[in-house]
Specification:
By secondary structure, the protein is of the alpha/beta class. It is built from twelve helices and eleven strands. The protein has two domains: 121 residues, Leucine Dehydrogenase, chain A, domain 1 (Rossmann fold), CATH 3.40.50; 186 residues, NAD(P)-binding Rossmann-like Domain (Rossmann fold). β6, α5 and β7 form a beta-alpha-beta unit. The structure holds phenylalanine (PHE). One of its GO terms (molecular function) is oxidoreductase activity, acting on the CH-NH2 group of donors, NAD or NADP as acceptor.
Length: 340
């Protein structure tokens, strides 16, 4: 991937209402219109927001390709400057600015929710563009994508458990969930219900109520059976002590090189863009491809099979699961061979 230009289209615009820099990054439309969520959070500089958009958009290309979707990858980042108070008025203006920018892509980029945005925001965005998914059910959408995302992660966890421990059940296992946002909360709840001993961490300690809690700084290196990254990315480097890492956070690794060092130290890392596909698979399945709930959920459950296949290939070839997943994505993204 290197330093060379690889994104098809990237626009950063200072919002005319909010003064907040908004980026829409379209990484690839080879398989269809780019699809990816809208991240709204604070960044130290607009360049940090842009860099995040570029990484996240690329991740969506791989996520959608590996999931077998006829969509490319893109992402929106609304980069509220850290230090500026995120008031409801500023938030609404920044969303409106993002809506105008998304509209300018005329359907070649389709937006959904991500960290910092939800179904009510998608409804609000509809006043500016048709090309948003996950509106509330009362408005004809499929609502929050967090439930299907969590379902997909649980499918990936089962495959990872089978590969690492020889059994897919988490009962009696110590599982660390880092990030108690909309998906992490569901995972902590479901994993405990399945008999796992769940430890949680979040920068906002009030979200950890009801669980054994550790500091975020300690969570990634805690001795445990499974580590579930469910917050922002760029967090997994050296020092992981769980033999299985699988979760919904996008861009989990500090750098792609970490995949090799994890593998060498016997840690199985399920690529984030494989484990986290449940939300897009379900939402696009229902809202773009007309599947009913059961059919779309069945599609989400196939993540278990995908992860099983990738981990088996990784073991057989001595390659990292990341390399296997990227190779699968690249095969799907490869242009049809020329006939001349
Ligand atoms: N936040 C989702 C992801 O990272 C993006 C998304 C969800 C896009 C639902 C469209 C619909 O995969």
């Amino acid at each position: 991937m290197g330093e060379s230009w690889e994104h098809e289209e990237v626009v950063t615009r200072l919002g005319r209402r909010s003064g907040v820099p908004v980026t829409v990054a379209v990484h690839s439309r080879r398989l269809g219109p780019a699809a990816g969520g809208i991240r709204l959070r604070q960044y130290a500089t607009w360049q940090d927001g842009l860099a995040d958009a570029l990484r996240l958009a690329r991740g969506m290309t791989y996520k959608n390709a590996v999931a077998g979707l006829a969509f490319g990858g893109g992402k929106t980042v609304i980069a509220v400057p850290s230090g500026v108070a995120l008031t409801p008025a500023l938030r609404a203006d920044a969303l409106a600015d993002a809506g105008d920018l998304i509209a300018s892509f005329e359907g070649s980029y389709l937006a959904g929710p991500d960290i910092g945005t939800g179904q009510e925001d998608m409804l609000y965005l509809r006043s500016f563009t048709d090309h948003v998914f996950c509106l509330p059910e009362a408005h004809g959408g499929t609502g929050s994508s967090s439930g299907p995302t969590a379902r997909g992660v649980l499918a990936a966890v089962r495959a990872g458990m089978s590969s690492v421990f020889g059994t897919s059940t988490v009962a009696g296992r110590r599982v660390v969930v880092v990030g108690m946002g909309s998906v992490g909360t569901l995972l902590a709840r479901d994993l405990s219900a399945q008999g796992a001993s769940v430890v949680v961490a979040d920068v906002d300690e009030t979200r950890c109520a009801g669980y054994e809690q550790v500091a975020v700084a300690d969570a990634y290196s805690l001795p445990a059976d499974v580590l579930v990254p469910a917050a922002v990315g760029g967090v997994i480097g050296e020092g992981v002590r769980a033999p299985l890492v699988v979760g919904p956070a996008n861009n989990q690794l500090v750098s792609d090189d970490v995949a090799a060092s994890l593998n060498a130290s016997g840690v199985v890392w399920v690529p984030d863009f494989v484990a986290s596909a449940g939300g897009v698979v379900y939402t696009l399945g229902r809202e773009a491809s007309g599947l009913d709930h059961d059919a779309a959920m069945a599609q989400v459950e196939t993540i278990e099979e995908t992860v099983t296949t990738l981990l088996a290939a990784s073991a057989a070839h001595g390659a990292t699961p990341l390399a296997e997943a990227l190779a699968l994505a690249e095969r799907r993204l490869a242009p049809a061979p020329s006939r001349v």
